[in-house]
Amino acid sequence: MINVQNISMQYGPTLALDQVSFTVKQGEILGLLGPNGAGKSTLMKILTTFICPLSGSAKVGGFDVVEHPLKARELVGYLPETVPLYSDMRVDEYITFVAEARGLAGKKLEERTNYVREACGLTPVWKHGINELSKGFRQRVGIAQAIIHDPKVLILDEPTNGLDPLQIIGIRKLIRGMAQSKTIIFSSHILQEVEAIADRIVIIHEGRIVAQGTRDELTTLGGITGGKKPSLEELFISFLSAKKG
């Protein structure tokens, strides 16, 4: 469903992405793990056609994000790191606005609106102004706008940012449930989040992929010996240290 081949991106003298390649299958959840500034958000902006890569190619549902950006956008729901909310609107008004912009109308609009209200836990604030919401509720509104049109691909940049522990558990369940019919990429710098949700993990550091695979495959690649299975934190440190070396 997603195919990234040798993507590079540069901001002035800074190489943000360097020959990044990976694929994501239908129904798979891919976790992008890396420290702040590793290149995760830049990669997501390329996949969602916000920016064009310096070189390489990326396809979403078979559509090249540079040659056919509108076709790619139709397939994608996107939660950016900073959610673009309109603070002068109510929650219900904003969700309806996004849904109509996505081409929803009539019964379909009503069905999807009701779904995201329940799935994202927005019922208590449905008629509230967005400017009144806590950070956690703003994040949930951001997730709702990303899934309102029932996209085939979800790209989520730090989806549990600002949520309390119970809300995080709820969003984890929501993401896992949606994976049955969607392809999902989500980024995080929190190891526990990636380990709890992802089927496969891509570890990125300083713009390069330093490891990728399932949890068990990363254990094999890490080459950490000494009896018990290494934690993801130990593997993460090992891969980043190897990159520096």
Describe what you observe in this structure.
The protein has 245 residues and is of the alpha/beta class. It has a single domain (2-244), classed as 3-Layer(aba) Sandwich (Rossmann fold). It contains nine helices and ten strands. Strand 7 (153-157), helix 6 and strand 8 form a beta-alpha-beta unit. The radius of gyration is 18 Å and the shape is globular. The two termini are 34 Å apart. The model has no long low-confidence stretch (mean pLDDT 90).
Secondary-structure blueprint:
Layout: E1 2-11, E2 14-24, E3 29-33, H1 40-47, E4 55-60, E5 63-64, H2 69-75, E6 76-79, H3 91-101, H4 106-119, H5 135-147, E7 153-157, H6 165-178, E8 183-188, H7 191-197, E9 200-205, E10 208-213, H8 215-222, H9 232-244
Helix pairs in contact: 8-9
